[in-house]
Amino acid sequence: MRRCNEEVAGLLQEYADLIAITGGDAFKVRVYEKAARSVGGYGRDIDGMDAAELRAIPNVGESIAAKIEEYLRTGSIHRLEELRTKIPAGVRMLTTIPTLGPKKAMLLYQERGIDSIEKLEDAIRAGDLRGLHGFGPKTEENLLHGIEVMRKTGSRVHIGTAMAVAEEIVPALSAVPGCERCAYAGSLRRMKDTIGDVDVLATAKDPAALMAAFTTLPYVTEVIAHGDTKSSVRTTAGLQVDLRVVPRDSWGAALQYFTGSKAHNIRTREIAVHRKLKLSEYGVFDVATGEKITSADEAEVYGMLGLPWIEPTLREDTGEIEAALAGQLPKVVTLADIRGDLHTHTDLTDGLAPLEEMIEAAAARGYAYYAVTDHAPNLFMQRMTDEKALAQRERLRRLGAARHGMTLLHGCELNICPEGEVDWPPEFLAGFDLCVASVHSHFTQPPEEMTRRLIRACENPYVKIIGHPTARIIGRREPVDADWTRVFDACVRTGTALEIDSFPDRLDLPSDLVRRAADMGVLFSIDSDAHAVPHLDVMRYGVGTAQRGWLTPDRVINTWPLDRLREFLRPG
Ligand code: DGT
Ligand code: CA
Ligand code: ZN
Ligand code: CA
């Protein structure tokens, strides 16, 4: 179920695109784009707001507020409807092709009636664009290439794949003689759940040597571009990696620029302009003298803008600039705050490692507590039984209440059935230290049923954590459809935490929903959902997702000391 904010954000973005296509004012386009982002990222639900409340949203002025109000009242925006009758939706799609701008898209539509990517492709191949102003053979070739690239690279990779590549490349380049600094930036540094390409930055005494090393790395399958300051390659994982070598005294500014996001950069550049500075990927410049101001690190760059350093995970222009200016940036949770893992598996069900191995590995991480939560009987292929669960508990207790100072908790991962019931009756659940409950079947229930199902699970006094709440698998399974506002309400009312499952193809709850839930007072548990020893390391992706949701440690139950956690886990 899409929230009103997302709906309106989509409409404002569409309005901006249509103004651009019809040759409207570029400034106006920007204004609507900014408003779209602000509304989409706004913490409160805009449904039912009046014009005055709407104007309190950053970047929403009088005329945009009026349009939103019109939509909330009537279900449509008259001006947008007018533009829609002039421009078919497919023409808007055309502008997503690299190298095809709004003006050319409009020309293709007006002169040749082309209103889809398929039609454009056909027209080029049939030679139908001959004689059309601005469409020579070179342009046609670029367009066909753009369409092909779009189809191929339309698939972004999840953060685990991109991080693995970056963590091979950065140390390899750092080891090249003359390399002074090397780091990854872009969406990967911002810990987005999917990554388009990996952006690596470096400073080096001998840039050419570094470029040569980069383009000949063993897992490079294609060199897309090879230059003195920028090269791009494709790796065996199919992922594009860009390397940019920047001057030493640009490091801070370059890292800031290439970390993005683009929306965040637009804001920082505006602030620079107000301070008579120019901020670009090349550095910070004094506008009056044209002089470059050295920026050794990012903190200095933000400092020149009168801002504190901002966590990369917050840099999406969803309120972090305002918070920074007001001195109210959240102190978001970090990996060091995590005291334990509350959702893990062993080879008793679908895990790979025996209980003792998982526990040893967890203890080595310095955790204060650790919960073993194998699957419950209703997930039939896991063959769990009451006896097996009890025997596992015995085995755990025999290991001692604590292992290397780490308290062991015996838990389970229940299955939430379509009506919201779970595997075991209350008497049996009472024997566990902790019950996680998750949706593992019937993913496509209508929203009303799914909402009731999740709320029912929260209302179970023994269920303390809802595991991977949307059940999405990135790139493979869509999130379940529920009225999240009502689910979040139920979590607060029943004292049930939502999980951020840290598995890189899950990252569930996703960060936008995390932020909404946190605003409503929901608590979280950031878990690995480990099925093997190396999986304990995925915790950092969950922490990144939590940061993107602006979570502070006090909202995360597994940053709490054991006593406080136990209090929370008491049934009721
Ligand atoms: P991705 O690769 O799609 O997952 O997302 P990003 O954020 O890594 O984007 P990318 O790789 O296109 O560019 C890296 C950063 O460079 C981006 O986050 C901000 C900066 N950047 C790129 N293009 C522009 C631009 O046109 N304007 C501004 N202000 N910054 C840009
Ligand atoms: Ca990128
Ligand atoms: Zn599960
Ligand atoms: Ca509960």
From TrEMBL:
Pfam families membership: DNA_pol_B_thumb, HHH_5, HHH_8, PHP
Residue ranges of domain DNA-directed DNA polymerase X in the record: 3-316
The entry's keywords: DNA damage, DNA repair, DNA replication, DNA synthesis, DNA-directed DNA polymerase, Exonuclease, Hydrolase, Methylation, Nuclease, Nucleotidyltransferase, Sodium, Transferase, Ubl conjugation
Cofactor entry: Mg(2+)
EC number: 2.7.7.7, 4.2.99.18
Reaction catalysed by this enzyme: 2'-deoxyribonucleotide-(2'-deoxyribose 5'-phosphate)-2'-deoxyribonucleotide-DNA = a 3'-end 2'-deoxyribonucleotide-(2,3-dehydro-2,3-deoxyribose 5'-phosphate)-DNA + a 5'-end 5'-phospho-2'-deoxyribonucleoside-DNA + H(+); DNA(n) + a 2'-deoxyribonucleoside 5'-triphosphate = DNA(n+1) + diphosphate; a 5'-end 2'-deoxyribose-2'-deoxyribonucleotide-DNA = (2E,4S)-4-hydroxypenten-2-al-5-phosphate + a 5'-end 5'-phospho-2'-deoxyribonucleoside-DNA + H(+)
SUPFAM superfamilies, sorted: DNA polymerase beta, N-terminal domain-like (SSF47802), Nucleotidyltransferase (SSF81301), PHP domain-like (SSF89550)
Compartments reported by the entry: Cytoplasm
Start and end residues of each Helix-hairpin-helix DNA-binding motif class domain: 52-71, 92-111, 127-146
Residue stretches making up the Polymerase/histidinol phosphatase N-terminal domain: 340-418
GO terms for MF: exonuclease activity
Physiological role: Repair polymerase that plays a key role in base-excision repair. During this process, the damaged base is excised by specific DNA glycosylases, the DNA backbone is nicked at the abasic site by an apurinic/apyrimidic (AP) endonuclease, and POLB removes 5'-deoxyribose-phosphate from the preincised AP site acting as a 5'-deoxyribose-phosphate lyase (5'-dRP lyase); through its DNA polymerase activity, it adds one nucleotide to the 3' end of the arising single-nucleotide gap.
PANTHER family xref list: PHOSPHATASE YCDX-RELATED
Listed NCBIfam families: PRK08609.1
Name of the protein this chain belongs to: DNA polymerase beta
Gene: polX
